[in-house]
Design brief:
- A hairpin with a 5-residue loop joins strand 1 and strand 2.
- With 443 residues, the chain is mainly α.
- It folds into five domains: 109 residues, Cytochrome Bc1 Complex, Chain D, domain 2, CATH 1.10.760; 35 residues; 97 residues, no CATH class; 48 residues, no CATH class; 54 residues, no CATH class.
- The protein is 52% helix and 2% strand.
- It starts with a helix and ends in a 14-residue tail after the last strand.
- Helix 2 packs across helix 7.
- A two-stranded antiparallel sheet has the order 1-2.
- It contains 20 helices and four strands.
Length: 443
């Protein structure tokens, strides 16, 4: 039975397509151990080792340890993302938090798959062969390099197989062409590739288009995340409980952030503001540990009626709501003139029992009285959207009558289209007063 040239080449096409699909799947699903190693080195290696306690405990088989210890399902993921939330929700996590006085760094940007990749990498690490010290070879890059090298050999083998199949298919097709032809004609491999692409030009065109679009979409998605700080929660020198101060004790925000209604910045309270109350209030056993840090910074000893030593230390607070240098934002303008409540941007601090963070817009929208917005918090779209929705009261501001009368007059005289918008919805927004003009917010 004679096999035609087309049958032979089509069979070669099928094998080639299968191999290309396998290579695409392999490249699209890289080894979780490689991801885990990179994530471990960038996120965890500063405080943890697989087989040795450091600043934090060893991580070898930590998932099994949590499960055997009675931890709630999924609690270990919550611990990595935000240990304070996990500590409040799980007794075992609260027990783990007593391991060291050093606070666990918050990694809200990690998802469960990435956390599993880290643990998979850690569990795959053998003990060092030197002296039983438990020090991981990967900490010096040893085992990670071996793993990466062994994986490289797999790529070399696959590439070799791929090249052999291409050469074989091309050679068989050329021989069949020569047999069917009266004249000898040797085609080059470039000719074979061009011929194959031409015959399958629709599939090739669709494939190229998909790849190009995927690259463009991926790049745009990455660019869109630049400067987005939603859920950003840096560590702080003191675990300050806003819910106790602003909630239970009903302390006004401006008592601590006393320049919010007077200045461009809201201000961070100095230690002497804390000492106004905590010179007498020392809190319970848990709170006393944090209050002791205030005493140390102030150079104060509560014993024997309390006295100051004069030896003070600085408290280095990490800024949470970080805006680019080219963005102008004035707290007093929003708080006093605009009448914006703190919870519109910072969330309900009377209920916040964790470290301050950039509250996601979804959580801000759940607070009664807040303007409903859709763009990520602290982005340009978020500000513009608020300026387009926030209504301005056409009346006196803190007893200063006629503040908006001049603005209303300009609206009548200079911009009829904006005045028409005002007549349609019956309100004046920040946008209609020039709140969308670039120079209002950009230097």
């Amino acid at each position: 039975m004679k096999i035609s040239k087309n049958q032979m080449f089509n069979k070669g096409n099928n094998w080639l397509f299968a191999l290309m699909s396998a290579l695409i799947l392999i490249s699209a699903n890289p080894s979780s151990a490689q991801d885990g190693e990179a994530l471990f080195n960038s996120k965890c290696a500063t405080c943890h080792q697989p087989h040795k306690d450091m600043t934090g405990p060893k991580l070898y088989e930590v998932r099994q340890k949590w499960e055997e210890g009675g931890a709630k399902e999924g609690s270990i993921y919550q611990w990595v993302k935000n240990f304070q939330v996990a500590k409040a929700n799980d007794p075992y996590a609260n027990e783990v938090s007593a391991w060291s006085p050093t606070s666990m760094t918050i990694f809200a940007d990690l998802n469960n798959e990435q956390i599993d990749a880290i643990f998979d990498y850690v569990d795959a690490q053998p003990l060092s062969s030197e002296g039983g010290g438990g020090e991981q070879v990967a900490s010096t890059g040893g085992s990670g390099q071996k793993e990466e090298t062994s994986l490289g050999w797999i790529w070399y083998v696959l590439a070799g197989i791929f090249i052999v199949i291409i050469l074989s298919v091309g050679g068989v097709r050329r021989q069949l062409s020569n047999i069917d032809s009266d004249e000898e004609y040797q085609k080059t491999y470039a000719d074979e590739i061009r011929t194959w692409m031409f015959r399958n030009r629709k599939s090739v065109g669709v494939g190229v288009l998909v790849i190009v679009l995927a690259i463009i979409v991926g790049v745009l998605l990455q660019l869109g995340q630049i400067g987005v700080l939603s859920a950003y929660q840096p560590s702080q020198p003191i675990q300050f409980p806003h819910d106790i101060h602003a909630g239970e004790n009903d302390i006004d925000c401006k008592y601590c952030h006393n320049s919010a209604d007077k200045s461009k910045t809201a201000g961070i309270p100095t230690v002497n503001v804390c000492m106004n109350c905590h010179k007498q209030i020392q809190g319970n056993e848990t709170q006393a540990e944090q209050i002791a840090k205030i005493y140390e910074a102030a150079g104060f000893s509560p014993e024997g009626g309390g006295q100051y030593s004069g030896e003070t230390e600085n408290l280095v607070w990490n800024k949470v709501h970080v805006l680019p240098d080219h963005v102008y934002f004035n707290h007093s303008q929003h708080v006093v003139v605009g009448g914006i409540d703190c919870k519109q941007c910072h969330g309900d601090m009377t209920k916040q029992n964790e470290l301050p963070r950039v509250v996601p817009v979804e959580e801000l929208n759940e607070i009664d009285g807040n303007i409903q917005l859709t763009k990520p918090t602290l982005t340009m779209g978020w500000c513009i959207e608020c300026h387009g929705e926030k209504e301005i009261a056409n009346g006196p501001v803190e007893g200063k009558g006629g503040y908006y009368d001049e603005i209303h007059k300009r609206l009548l005289e200079n911009d009829k289209s904006l005045y028409q918008d005002y007549l349609e919805d019956g309100k004046v927004t920040v946008k209609e007063l020039g709140g969308w003009e670039c120079a209002k917010c950009h230097y």
